[in-house]
């Protein structure tokens, strides 16, 4: 199994063979060239603003070209928790944003002619235990009553119409979610931003941001520039250059394997409706088909991707995949890779402004749709000056309890043990 991002073999990714020069002065400088940054850049450039995306590596290098491609409704925390923490009205607005985010991806893909296989295949949330299925039973009425959103139960006896395994105790289907090829999507989004007039600068790591009056002076590894506004779109790769944000975001590794191409019959048996599938655990598995390959992911290690965590994860994920799908015991696993997720301490996504710097972060594994949406939304708020009115700005962005985190996630091994223990008892 080779350590390589399978998605990168399906598209010509943006590279750094020709570097766009760093402009000296812009209206908006965006740090980070993933969905958040590129969606914001597209929106701002279409509004005739002079905008630059400053990306440390190559455009699309981060989570945006490595993920599972699941374009999901909802937020990371259960909507019951969101109502409990923020009240009914705000929860309704936040959920509506999640529906809008999937629609926005669909709209952009169509408008910009992005060839990324976007399709509303729906998602399947599987119950690992009977009590999970009991909890899912409550979801159907709850989502209809509170959010006017229809989801459907799949009882254990009907599971084979949705998934080729008997290990689960039932499932829930949400037909509104979709799926796409993440690398093709981010490459297409970059093309759209560039066509609209945004400057996309690879190999331009931002090393310093200094505010002088109302303007920002930004140093990059390739030169400096001046900007009216700054948007931080660095997700799980947020670093010391935005220290305050770094202290609010925990980088967590997530890993994926891709099998060889399976026969049509086997692929159909594994996922007859080609759903985006994930389970109920904290240490969850998520999987889906693409081009008859099983793309199977999980939080196999908690630390971000490096040669070690990727190679260990490959073996762990293969074992987990075979527990669900024994039919895959002879299937060759051809690729393994990892990427970094961004978790806020409340597991919520946050968009706002601090010290005059805009941000959208904390997608917690729900960023394909939400990062696209918040990039565009924050971009509009930058021009209108109304970010505080947006639902994702209406609640606090907490740091670590007792301030026990300075950007070095020393507690990740403990968190791993904690969540594994919770999966045993819950
Ligand atoms: C393995 C994996 C699977 C996932 N699966 C799903 C899924 O199925 N569905 C879903 O909704 N979400 C999923 N996610 C999450 C989703 O990919 C992210 O939420 C989303 O891509 C975030 O986009 P972004 O643009 O904010 O950040 P990113 O795409 O991570 O981009 C941030 C960029 O900032 C750059 N950067 C950092 N610091 C600097 C600096 N100082 N100067 C310049 N540039 C800098 C980085 O190089 C990076 O390219 C997954 C993530 C991973 C890792």
Summary?
The protein has 426 residues and is α/β, with parallel strands linked by helices.
Give an overview in words.
The chain is α/β, with parallel strands linked by helices. It has helices spanning 35-46, 79-86, 88-111, 130-147, 182-196, 243-246, 264-270, 307-324, 367-384, 412-425; strands at 2-3, 25-31, 51-54, 70-71, 123-126, 152-154, 171-174, 178-179, 199-201, 206-212, 215-220, 223-232, 249-259, 276-279, 285-290, 293-298, 333-344, 350-354, 357-361. The protein has a nine-stranded mixed beta sheet. 50% of the residues are buried. It binds flavin-adenine dinucleotide (FAD). The site of flavin-adenine dinucleotide has 44 residues, from α1, β13, β17 and α9. Flavin-adenine dinucleotide (FAD) binds at residues 31-37, 54-57, 61-64, 66-70, 72, 205-206, 233-237, 239, 241, 254, 256, 286, 297, 339-341, 363, 365-369, 371.
List the helices and strands and how they pair.
Layout: E1 2-3, E2 25-31, H1 35-46, E3 51-54, E4 70-71, H2 79-86, H3 88-111, E5 123-126, H4 130-147, E6 152-154, E7 171-174, E8 178-179, H5 182-196, E9 199-201, E10 206-212, E11 215-220, E12 223-232, H6 243-246, E13 249-259, H7 264-270, E14 276-279, E15 285-290, E16 293-298, H8 307-324, E17 333-344, E18 350-354, E19 357-361, H9 367-384, H10 412-425
Helix pairs in contact: 1-5, 1-9, 2-3, 3-9
The chain binds flavin-adenine dinucleotide (FAD).
Residues 31-37, 54-57, 61-64, 66-70, 72, 205-206, 233-237, 239, 241, 254, 256, 286, 297, 339-341, 363, 365-369, 371 line the site of flavin-adenine dinucleotide.
